[in-house]
Amino acid sequence: MKTFSKEPGTEPRRQIDCPVCGAAEFRSLWTSEHYLFARCRGCGLVYQNPQPLQAILAQRYDEEYFVYEKENEERYYRLMRLGLEDIGFDAMASGIPENKRTIVDIGCATGKLISCLQQSGWRVQGVEICAASAEYGRQTYGVPIHIGPLESGGFPDGSFSVAHCSHLIEHLTDPKKFLQEVSRILTADGRLIISTPNIAGFQARLMGEKWRSAIADHIILYSRKTLRRLLEANGFRICRMKTWGGIGAGIVPGWIKKPADFLAKRSGVGDVMIVLAGRRL
Known about the structure:
This protein is about 35% helix and about 25% strand. By secondary structure, the chain is α/β, with parallel strands linked by helices. The longest helix has 14 residues, at about 75-85.
C-alpha cells in the first residue's frame, strides 16, 4: 500500500533546532530536490531541516488526500485494529469503568475506527485536519469530528481516558506542543497510543533514502529510542512498545516475507512501531 505524500515545490522553510533534545548541530542524511532529512548530533533524531511551516503542510490534506483515505479505509482500519491488539487495548479497556470510556482519535481520517468503538460503548471524538475526510465521517458514521489541529479543539482538561493517533506524529512540526495538549485533555490515569514508522527498523536500514516512509510529508522520523525520549520528556511513561513489518509486500516471495516479518517483530526492528504510554503523575 503506497503511503500518501505530495512532493512539495518551492515553499517557505525555516532552520530549526532538534524537536526532541533541542541540539543545534546536525548532519545531512538524505537529500531530495526540495527537502533534506538531517540527523541530530545530540540524540540521533531524523527530521527535515530546514522545516516547512505547519500552515503550509496543512494545505496538502485536501480532496486528493480524502480520496486516498477513503480508498484505503478498510485496510487502514484492519492495521489499526491489529496494532491495538498488539498493545493489549481490550485488556486495557476492561480496566476502565464503562461510564468513563472516552477516546479521542487524533488524525481520525474518515472516522471508521471511532465509529466501531462507539458501537462498542465508547464515547468518541475525532480530530481531523482534512475537512473532506471529517465531513465524510460525520455524514457516513454520525461521529463527532473536529476539523483542524488538536490545539484548536478547545477540549476541557481531563476530557478523555484514551488518546489515539495512528501515523500522525511524524507529520507534526512541533511534537512537544502536541504532547503537552494531549496530556492536558487526558484524565490523570489516561493512556496515549501512538503508531508511527520506525526509522531504526530493518526496512529503513535496508532501503535508506528509498525507504517508503522517507517522504516529503513525514517531517520527523522516530526510532524507539527517540520516541521514548520525546514521550518521557513531556510527561509520559512507556507502558508497552511493539513493532511489526519485516519486508514490504511484493519485494520478496511470501515464504521469505512471513519468517522475516516474524523475526522483525520478535526483535523489535519492524517497519512500524506502536506505543502505549500513560501520564506520569
